[in-house]
Write a structure and sequence with these properties.
mainly alpha; 2 domains; about 65% helix
Length: about 400
């Protein structure tokens, strides 16, 4: 009697489970959700657990170094910005302040490169939805403002709440309007979007409201009109030219026929003064600091110090207890801290990042749908009124650098 032994069909390796189909698994996704909640310094309530979470993320990055190293090498030009901050230690009055800023900026870029390497753009959008959605629900219960000014929710300032809810809205709109997302996340987006809009209104943040009014329709057009236009050759460039021409014509009619002053009337509608909430006065005084150190600046993070007389004058005139002070303009902050040479280096880094995001989106319309491109537009516009892109471990820069490294990954 003979026994026949047959080889059974080998078992196929099961794909690792994930919240949203993509390159990363559920561990990668949950680590990003955790990072987006705890890491940003503009969420003070997370301070007790932030050091522990930072160590956890560093260990996670060490375990994923094979994914991280190639992406960091591809984005090595971005590292010129923190490198220049380190270099400014040579002429800074407080070298450790420059070192700290360079180190935190490097950490921000490192974490961003890690998540760009591990996750697809749609998985990143879902992580933004979950992390900021959780903070939105918490902001319904807790209001740190104490009823003074606009609602700030769990954050230290109303503008932070407005900005976070803007990010949530853009992520939710992309998930809701575009295919490729799981039904659970579409339902979640449908529930969270009204909450985000409500909190933006309650925050009384004029910048967030204006950007929301502009970017949500843009996201809708990109999802519902732009994507289908791919089937007709040459239609997309024609749409771009048509929108620009229509906008220019509408602006000419408003100004010349109805004698409307768009900027001033918009400020009046939100109850803001014509100095952009004293920003123009801050910029005028900032020219003094630029004149004193025009080429190399005062050093990274070396202007807003207690022994700097110009900074003391500004904080005495304009500071409030709930603000972290800045020039409220990215380019002013860069030229004061790093000088004209540092400004050129920084603009080359930011310009390369923005170009990469836009070029990748133009070539591949699956690149995060409208989420990444509308978020990039938000950062470019906000650079005129906020200096956040030069900050380290803040929500805006974390997302910006994730997008920049993601564009490199998808080339």
């Amino acid at each position: 009697m003979t026994t026949n032994f047959t080889m059974s069909t080998p078992l196929r390796a099961r794909a690792a489970p994930s919240l949203q189909a993509g390159r990363g698994d559920v561990v990668d996704e949950m680590m990003l959700v955790l990072a987006l909640v705890v890491l940003p310094l503009d969420f003070p309530m997370a301070q007790p657990v932030r050091p522990l979470v930072t160590l956890l993320l560093l260990a996670y990055g060490a375990l994923r170094w094979r994914s991280l190293a190639p992406v960091l090498w591809q984005g090595r030009w971005f590292l010129a910005l923190p490198l220049f901050c380190f270099l400014s230690m040579i002429w800074a009055d407080r070298p450790m302040a420059a070192f700290r800023h360079g180190a935190l900026l490097s950490l921000t870029m490192g974490f961003a490169a890690l998540f760009a390497a591990r996750l697809d753009p749609r998985q990143i959008a879902v992580a933004v939805l979950l992390s900021q959605g959780g903070l939105a629900l918490a902001s319904l219960i807790i209001d740190a403002s104490g009823g003074v000014g606009g609602w700030s929710g769990v954050f230290a300032h109303k503008n932070v709440l407005g900005q976070r809810m803007l990010f949530l809205t853009l992520a939710g709109a992309a998930i809701l309007l575009r295919p490729g997302y799981r039904g659970l996340w579409k339902l979640t987006a449908l529930i969270l979007l009204p909450l985000a809009l409500f909190l933006v209104a309650r925050s009384n943040s004029a910048t967030a409201v204006i950007l929301l009014a502009v970017m949500v329709p843009v996201a809708g057009l990109l999802a519902l009109v732009w994507a289908p236009a791919a089937s007709v050759r040459g239609l997309r460039p024609a749409l771009v030219l048509g929108v620009l021409a229509t906008g220019a014509l509408a602006l000419l009619i408003l100004v010349n026929v109805y004698h409307i002053e768009p900027v001033n009337d918009l400020l009046d509608a939100f109850g803001k003064d014509r100095t952009l909430t004293k920003r123009t006065e801050i910029w005028a005084l900032g020219n003094r600091a630029i004149a004193e150190a025009p080429w190399l600046g005062v050093g990274a993070a070396n202007f807003w110090l207690v022994d700097n007389w110009t900074a003391l004058q500004l904080t005495t005139r304009f500071q409030t207890m709930t603000q972290t002070f800045s020039f409220h303009n990215l380019y002013y902050q860069l030229i004061v801290d790093l000088g004209l040479i540092g400004l050129l280096v920084s603009l080359s880094v930011y310009g390369r990042a923005v170009y990469g995001i836009v070029a990748t989106w133009w070539r591949d319309q699956r690149f995060a749908d409208p989420f990444f491109i509308t978020l990039t537009a938000v950062f470019v516009i906000r650079s005129l009124s906020e200096a956040e892109l030069f900050y380290a471990l803040v929500m805006g820069p974390i997302l910006f650098w994730i997008m920049a490294f993601s564009a490199l990954v998808r080339r």
